[in-house]
Predict the structure.
Amino acid sequence: MNFVGLFNYWIVMVLMMIGFYIVIAQGNLVKKLVGLTLFQTSVFIMYITMGKIEGATAPILVEGEALYSNPLPHVLILTAIVVGIATTALGLALVVRIKESYDSIEEDEINRKDQEC
Amino acid sequence: MELIINMGLLSMLAMTAIAIVRIKDLFAVAMLAGIYGLISASFFVMMDAVDVAFTEASVGAGISTLLMLTTLAITGRFEKADKKSRTRFALPLVLLTGALLIYGTLDMPSFGAADSPVQEHVAPRYLNDSAQEIGIPNVVTSVLASYRAFDTFGEVIVIFTAGVGVLALLMRTDLPPISSVKNTASMEEHMVLRIVAKMLIPLILLFGLYVQFHGEYGPGGGFQAGVIFASAFFLYAMLYGMNAARKVIDSSLVQVLAALGVLIYGTTGVVAMLSGKNFLDYSVFSEDPVHAQHLGILFIELGVGLTVATVMIIIFFTFSGRSQVEGERD
Amino acid sequence: MLAHLPVLHVIIPMMAAPACLILRRRDLVWFVALAATLMSFAVSIGLLLQVLESGPISYEFGGWEAPWGIEYRIDLLNAPLLLLVSGISAVALFAARKSIEAEIPKDRHALFYIAWLLCMAGLLGILATGDAFNVFVFLEISSLSAYTLIALGKNRKALWASYQYLIAGTIGATFILIGIGLMYMMTGTLNMADLSERLPEVSSSRTVFTAFAFFIVGVCLKLALFPLHVWLPNAYAYAPSVVTAFLAATATKVAVYILIRFKYGIFGFDFAFSSLPLQSIFLTLGLAGIFVASIAAIFQDNLKKLLAYSSVAQIGYLIVGLGLANETGLMATLLHMLNHGLMKGALFLALAAIVYRLGEAKLSEMHGLASRMPWTMAAFLIGGLSLIGVPLTVGFVSKWYLVTAALEHDWWPVAGLILLGSVVSVIYVWKVVEVVYFKAANERTAEVREAPLSILAPTWVLVAANLYFGINTELTVGITRMAAVSIFGGL
């Protein structure tokens, strides 16, 4: 087994799962969104890691340089980062409105208030 | 050496993530999330992804943290203690998902290999031929703005959608007229800060323009430029108060500009269509194919920059407008 | 312009949306949105005709050939769905003008139509694209605008439902992103056709298995397969009524399309069914979904929620069709995607009419409503019969092929359970019919008048479609059969 070659990926998988855990295990609505950001950022790290070549440089063409890392994952993740911030912004806007109408941002309190009426 | 830095950054990420799980003070959580973004940006630099690092630093550590703090000002700072029942259900699920992911890594090409499928199919064309086909040094910009320009159009639409969504949820039509409210700025009394900021703001704007037009040669481009440009306005609003900022920025004009950015991007594609080429085929702009690519990229980056800057401004000011009204009600 | 048809249906709403933000005036915005939607619809008709005449069409963005550039690919599988999405969108948007007057504050109307256009553009983009990452981008366009549309519902529960949908949807999208990333890692490409050629070489690897698993789970979260459906009932119940009509008829179908496209078109039939016990998973979850959700529907008082649970049950039928894993089963699923779109569109628009008059659609407050709103309730009745699967409606046609597919395997118990599912749906439809037709009007319903024509007319357009395609099955059955044959034969 290629221990050194996969070690990076394993850490990234652990990071993803910490983010995923926050999303499903925590009841605070803002914290859930933080978890979502963590989860997504870790997936970005996975993408970027796979584009790297040992000893290469950033994909900006320079005279005399021959080895560049793969630019395609970079492009994809640029798009994905924008998608991520768009989701966070919309999610936070929802949280503000939920706070205004339920006076709480805790999952169980909101569920309880919903059942009362 | 590189290996040690990588390991160091990755373990810092892990520590930050664990701290976020445990800490109940949401202000600290938001700051830690910003730090997480910053460390991952550093990691991206190590991975040669300079454009991505630039964006992650401005979004993950900048905009996203700012929005979270603004939200927390409205919703309150502390979260309640965890419920055991939820943990009991979440933990096995997460462990199962994680185990599947680790299982999946076992057949992965090893890290940094130059002969993995990712390096041998599709990508070589970008690295080898983009110099002749597009003629700009930054290959990321070539792919982003020409080969996969339609994805980027989608990206602009996504950010536009977020702007529309935030407006639909939080827009207030009943904000009191500017003159009638006392102008309160969170850092108004800090004279030194205000003067330093006043000198900084033109520099930030200038830097934004530089990033906008330098994206073909170095890291940067419309998206990063838009975020930087918008941040100058955020700084102004924080130091001189929302009302002063609202005087500078007319909200309906900002909305028109946001729409205009999308339209510039789309029209660049439609012009190509009307001239008989496919959507976003830049070759219609000039006889010389490389020059045509330059022009096309210039147009669409302009659209990206305009929409990103204005939507960021819309989002920030809509959030702040909401918290301002909250404050008055209390 | 004929050469540009494959992209025009997406480009038109994508350009109309920002234009609407500049126009601002809500009547004008409504008009532009409707015009753009109708144009998309016309383009979709043109595309279907082109595909029928000359086979799949490919369109390369920026003139860059795939797999380096992004390509759109229209074939028999997605062309009918383009027609469904743009068609339902046009019909529901026509009804929206009157319907949202009662449900959404006036200063939000323009933004509502803009979000609607973006949502439609996103859904159409997912259907048309031939690039795996492009699917993710357009999925997010449609999702973000859908969260916005749902949150505009007048009850505060709409906000909470929208937030829960946002969390579930983003987890789903991130799983899909992981799946796409792992596929890319093993093949080096994002183009779907290219992926399908390169995946078989590495299909035995554990990484591809994980990619497949994550992708499927992510999509199943998006399409609300039982037991990942928890976000759906509240989202549909508290969204503005026309939004429910639009999303219920289209959004989950588009997710099912992604599932079919990747499962058959990219991973290939053999891989999809040999590496995971997917056939039995789909059959079990599909059938469980049919019964659990149908029984939950029986106990609902809020009609929108009742139909939302019924949607979860209908998704069960779609998945059972896939689980049967034969040509007829796939065809039944494709057919039911179109047919279910038509019936849920009609039913939810009828509810929009009721909500417009009553303020909400609570069964306990609808005594004798049929005498006051005869046309609305007749539309609801026909939609309900279609849902059950009574002959002469579209529901019958798709159930017929589904049962046939089960019998081709000689799986009598499965066929029996499908029919039993219909019996359960009789119960909840009857529950409504009993209250509105056979109870005397109470003081609340006594003053109600028939819904305005601008909501009634679009409802009846869809009701007519339910009957027309139920009697004249040649077109829909013909196209879906050709699509199923091409998928099974071509790969």
